[in-house]
Amino acid sequence: MLKMNNIKLLLFFAISKLLLVDVFSLNSVPETIKKYNYYVNIAELSIVESQYEQAVLYYDSAFMKKDYAFAVDKYNAAICHIYLKQYAHAYSFFQEILQKGYAVENLKNKAQFKGFFESSWGQKLNNYSEDIEYNLNTEVRSILDSLFFMDQLFRKKREFGNPYDFFEDTINRIDDSNRIVLKNIIDEYGFPGEEIIGLSETSLPRQPYQIILLHFQQISSARRRGEFGNVIPWIQNAYYNGRMPAHEAAFLLEAAGMDYGNSFSTLVKYRYVGPDPYSEESEFITKETPWGFYNLTEEEKFGINSVRSEFGLESVEDLRKKLVFQMNTKTFDFSKIYGGRSIYQMQDYEWYKNINLISAE
Fold it and tell me: 281 partner at 20 to 30 Å CA-CA among 3, 144, 165, 327?
């Protein structure tokens, strides 16, 4: 069975490029969005290289390309200004972030902001946080938070086992109701991105609509009835109109078209567990590869990067640099990148010996 899982993995990896092309090329991404993403990408790569003066210049260029710059990008720009002792610029960005609902305690509790909060600009921000005029639609935010609560209500009931085995019909009805409410919000206000609904108190890139959109596409509900494709225009329009960040849009579209396949940024490890690791007569055997990335051929990289470029995303090579940086430092916020670590167990030693990964060092 484990060997078959790896065959499926390889088949998925080969087919995914074709599916990505189909999903990502439905319409042309506006040049303003591509340029915003381009400058943010090179700003982030400058951060990886500790080139903060260069990074703030690239962020400035990005923020001039569209009407609303995402909070996580302003946050990273602010940190660059703090490293450069340009506290007035950092204050300006932090002020805009707090206006969207992010709590000042999240800043005060981080060591990298100690010098800033000891300065007059930090004291000014602290005073400002006590009487903020929030810049968001609190009514729509409240509705989205309620939808999120209902989405999770029965999915979290695991005391009896898999909640879909006991509450599937109820979960499906909730999903159907949430879909109607979300559609009504989009029809009236446009897509409810952070420009409209602001931020949670503790997270910059995560929004309540994300998990709701994902669940619209699950086999247990909308997808089984052939309705999962309905979310694609919502995601596209949100991205094209600058209301959804590129990585989030790509992740949601990938889910709509490919059933949650591994992203190419994911670090993987393969574990050989022996021919029968759970047999009482057999000693447990385990060997592991180091963490690494899939070793793509030049042709595969070219095809994937072409698709990513058309959508306004960075190359696989740049994405991997940022993922490794994200895992090794908590100073900046690169959590908008959807990637992480995945472990695959194998019982076939020949397969294990032939695994070909690129080191993440």
Answer: 3
